[in-house]
Amino acid sequence: QVQLVESGGGLVQAGGSLRLSCAASGRTVRNSRMGWFRQPPGKERDFVAAISRSGGTYYANSVKGRFTISRDNAKNTVYLQMNSLKPEDTAVYYCAADVGYNKYDYWGQGTQVTVSS
What we know:
- By secondary structure, the chain is mostly beta strands.
- It contains no helices and eleven strands.
């Protein structure tokens, strides 16, 4: 069983930055594909970023150049650094883990990010 706990959300003005954290237990982030997703109010949950087991990173076009996904193997934690935030980035952000079945089987509880204009 894998547990994921997100933190770091909050209220920020447009143009500001936040860093989200996803602390994992039950499995190392190094051995999992880790992803960040977000769900804006009244909309579907969408892919934001992912980091593969080999360290490759992938981003949605809407966040490319502004967001950076990374991991700290020693802390078993994945991060999402979000810069130049826009009001349209407002959403609940979720961390997810793919432990080897090519799908995200484990999800955190989410953390709210609100960007004011």
